[in-house]
Specification:
It contains 8 helices and 7 strands, in the order E-E-H-E-E-E-E-H-H-H-E-H-H-H-H. With about 300 residues, it is α+β, with helices and mostly antiparallel strands. It has a 5-stranded mixed beta sheet, covered by helices on one side. A hairpin with a 7-residue loop joins strand 1 and strand 2. The longest helix has 28 residues. It comes from Gigaspora rosea.
């Protein structure tokens, strides 16, 4: 069958026609367009028919697309893989925190000994972002392959500026150095914060493994997640992420840390609500007792 492709937005290209077998999918159509117009690789295309967005993997006949129909292509612009974006986001704090921690005399203009609080905070933060990098490389399977390239700068700001420069500057400064009133922490208090942090990180990793195992490699299969954490909320990974950062906030008593988690939790809350609603809409047998992100509450 022949399908006409019209271009919408900034792309002022004349329509093109592609030939496809009757049983083709949306993916097949995107590949055919790419062969005709190499600029528009599949991840750069958003296709719609009768004002309805075409989903990857779906057969064209599901949208009643037949011979001679017109499909509209919107150019999403240059794309970058989600994996690359995540690696860039988490690399920022991994580079920024050691600079503030190890070059304190150059940054703060004086030499001082780090307190126990500062030492534990440094290793907790480095562990957190190191774990995130490893999960991005070896655990996560992304339902969406790419995102607009310019978004990498917006996404990275949250981590590079808020949990990177702003957090590192205020936590590792001389006002928190050994012997100062700000750094005074009971031994039991420090280890309680560390214990909560370790618990939350292990729990967060467990939920990521559960989500990974739901989706076979190279597919976009969606299933109802079950297991540790998922019995109470739809997004326990966000909940445990929040608990881990609250332990860092409690340890450092830093306004910069609290500001980062407030901003981060607000974003995770929005994502969790969206995912929770999507689960309930897609799966009629989705457990009714689950909340979105906070057990028993939200």
């Amino acid at each position: 069958m022949q399908i006409t492709i019209s271009f919408r937005g900034k792309s002022q290209k004349p329509p093109v026609t592609v030939d496809l077998p009757e049983d083709s999918t949306v993916d097949d159509l995107k590949k055919a367009i790419y062969k005709k117009v190499p600029k528009f690789y599949p991840d750069r295309q958003r296709l719609s028919f009768n004002e309805k967005t075409l989903q990857e993997g779906k057969p064209l006949k599901e949208y009643d697309i037949t011979n001679g129909e017109n499909v509209v292509l919107k150019d999403l612009g240059p794309q970058i893989s989600w994996k690359t974006v995540f690696l860039i986001e988490y690399l920022g704090p991994l580079l920024i925190h050691p600079i503030f921690y190890y070059f304190k005399s150059q940054i703060y203009g004086e030499n001082f000994e780090h307190s126990q609080m500062q030492k534990f905070a440094f290793y907790m933060i480095m562990t957190h972002f190191g774990k995130r990098e490893l999960e991005t490389l070896f655990v996560h399977r992304f339902s969406h392959g790419t995102m607009p390239f310019m978004n990498v700068f917006k996404n990275s700001f949250h981590y590079h500026a808020l949990s990177g420069i702003n957090l590192a500057y205020w936590v590792y400064g001389p006002w928190n150095a050994s012997g100062t009133l700000n750094s005074a922490r009971e031994e039991w208090y420090i280890w309680t914060c560390v214990a909560v942090f370790v618990y939350a990180q292990i729990s967060n990793f467990s939920t990521h493994i559960t989500l990974r195992n739901l989706r076979p490699p190279g597919t976009r299969v969606r299933k109802i997640p079950y297991g540790y954490g998922f019995e109470l909320v739809s997004c326990p990974n966000y909940f445990f992420e929040t608990v881990a950062w609250i332990s860092i906030c409690a340890l450092t008593n830093s306004l910069a840390a609290w500001f980062f988690i407030v901003v981060g939790f607000f974003q995770m809350y929005l994502w969790a609500i969206k995912k929770h609603k999507a689960y309930r809409k897609e799966f009629k047998d989705y457990p009714k007792n689950r909340r979105a992100i906070i057990p028993f509450l939200v």
